Structures are given as structure tokens and as C-alpha cells.
Amino acid sequence: MAAARTVVFVQGGKKNEVAYPWMFFHLDPLNDGKPETVDLVFFDFPDGTVKTWKNLLLKRGSAPTAAPDTEVELLPRVNMRNADGTLGPERPPITLMYDWVKKQPKQSIRSLQVFSHGWMGGPIVWNSAEYDPAGNKLEPLDQQDRDPNDTDFRIRDFFGSNPLAGAEGRKFADAFASDALIKLWGCVAPDGIRQQMQNYLKAPKGSKGDAARKAHLIDYLGSIGDSFPMIMAQQLDLAVWASPIGYGSEPGGEVPTNRGKVKVKYTGKFPPDLKKDRWWRVSWFFRNQDGGAKFYTDVLKARIDAVDFVEHKKSWFDDAKRVATASVEKGPFDSPMDLQRRLTDRIEALRVG
Fold it and tell me: Considering the entire predicted model, what is its pTM?
């Protein structure tokens, strides 16, 4: 089978961010090889078109100077659902990208990267809302049918009769090479979630903190499991790189830290020096204040890329859930004193609870 060579970029609906795909893309999580010749398919949602360059030497820094080999409108469009349930202007929905991917040859896509804002429920292309036919606003995890006037990525897409569920989801997943880089560049930062991880790290050392750590780990894994990146990874059995749950991502020239904002300069070098190079990166607080990088690699056994995005995979998530739900007292004791100490610690934990 020929090596996968199709690279897919998805640009969200904000025109002032059109430079980001060309500034920040990379095709390996940690290293940067020589520029590759690829077939580039660019879903340009702000422009309402999909552009294709064949045999393009993909270089970072700016958009290709050559005109695309093909450029077609993204059709059909829908009247986007507004936050109040009314219908707004016509916009191309993300389902057009889903449908295109499902038509590609098996294992032909080398990378899919979505350059947009994001939230726990998925990347944001147009920031549309979603309602059911009775006029009720849909909840992110309810698995009901997709609103036909919704234009954005949704968790529901992987369930029921929605466009990435069942056999349709398998068509989508089959288009990717086994080592494809799928990356969602936006935030995954609902309020209050990172505290669950911080509580795990603050638990007492040793056996005295076992019960607390397991409880906080269960909480945090629950949040991970309800997020779009992990649901996509689980339902389609794909590796999906995205921000760790609870954290935003920063593409700008000033990086917020606990000492104020630090100015950084774009050089185009990957991997970047995060102390001085501008790159679309996970929040500084994840690695430097909260110990998140160590937590993900040491506790969850997940991989992290050069700019702190996490590889979401079903394998490590399932393993972490088994560890979190195992009994604190499970396993042999080294001595009667060890048994007595664990029982005493357990009684103290119950009293505190």
C-alpha cells in the first residue's frame, strides 16, 4: 500500500486567524523533518471553499504562493442556528468535511488538523447552537439526533443515527493512516475541571492518600471521558491530540504566566523553545504551575507533544480507569504492621469523609 500523503487542514470561521494553519502545523508530535510533498486539502470555512494543492512541498511560515489545483464552494449550506434558536445566515456545516473524509481511500490521510477555538464539546467552526424539533436546546451529551441547522463539531455525532456513528464512523476512521496525526488546536477548558487534577496531586503521600487520590482520579477521568477528544478517540479508535481537559491553548505573541505576560517571537522552528518562541501551545499553567505534564505522563501514561497537547487514546484511558476503580486495599500486605497501618489510614479517611 502506498504511503499516506493527504494532509487536511480545517480553518475555523474567524478570518483574522487565517495565518494560523501555515504558522503552526507540524506532522510529527515531537520532531520536524524535511518539508514533505503532500496533497493538501484545505477546508477554508471563513472563505466558504475547499482548496486542494496536489504534490505540494508543504513549508511552514505562510500560505502556498501557487494557486490551488482546485477550489470549489463548500455546499450545500444551511441557515446557522443562533443561540436563541432562530435561524441566521447561511454557513457551510462541518458535516461537509465529515462526508469528504468518508469518501477517501482507506489509510490515505496522513494528518487532519483543526485550527479553531474549542470547548469541551468540540472544535468551534461557527459557534452555532443546537435545538431539537420541539424547540428545546440540546445538551452536549444527550446523544439525540443532530440539529440540521447546526454547523459545528458535536459529541452527539458519534452516536445514534448521526454522521460519525456506527458504519459511517468506521468509514471516517478507515480513511486515516495508522500513524495519522489528528490534532484539534483549540481550548478544552471548562471551569472547575483542573481542580480535580490538582486535588489528586495535593493528596497526602503514601498509603494515607490512596483513597483520596483514587477519588480525585475518578473525577478527572470522568471529565476526560465526557470531552470531545476522548469520545472521538474511543468511538473511532483513533489517536486524537488535543488540549488536556481543563486548559486553554494560546496562539498569540504574549503568554500569560503567574508572573504576568511573557512576550514571545515567532521563528517557525519546531519544536519551539517555549520560553521565547511563539507557538500555539497549551496554557503555561498546565506544565509550569500545576504539574499537569508530569501527571499525564506518569499517572495516566499518556503522551504529550512538544507544545503540551495530549494524545487521547482509548488504551491509556481504559487502563487509568481500571487503576482508579481498583480497591485501595487490594493486594498482599508486607507485614501485620503494614495491614494495621492501612486499616488505621482507612478509618481516618472515613472519619474525614
Answer: 0.91
Domain assignment of residue 1, yes or no: no
CA angle 111, 112, 117 (to 5 degrees): 140
318 assigned to some structural domain: yes
H-helix or E-strand containing 236? helix 228-236
38 half-sphere exposure, CB direction, 13 A CA radius: 23
State which residues form the domain around 141. Answer: 6-352
Q: Which helix (H) or strand (E) holds 180?
A: strand 176-184
Residues 328, 8: Cα–Cα separation, whole Å: 46
For cell 518539508, the residue is 35
Q: Mind listing the pLDDT tens digit for each residue in 168-190?
A: 999 999 999 999 999 999 999 99
Interatomic CA distance for residues 225 and 227, integer angstroms? 6
∠ Cα 67 70 73 (to 5°):
110
Distances (CA, A) of 322 to 191, 195, 210, 239: 26, 22, 15, 20
**Is residue 334 assigned to a domain?**
yes
The total domain count for the chain is 1
Eight-state DSSP code of residue 150: -
Mean pLDDT, the chain, whole residue set:
92
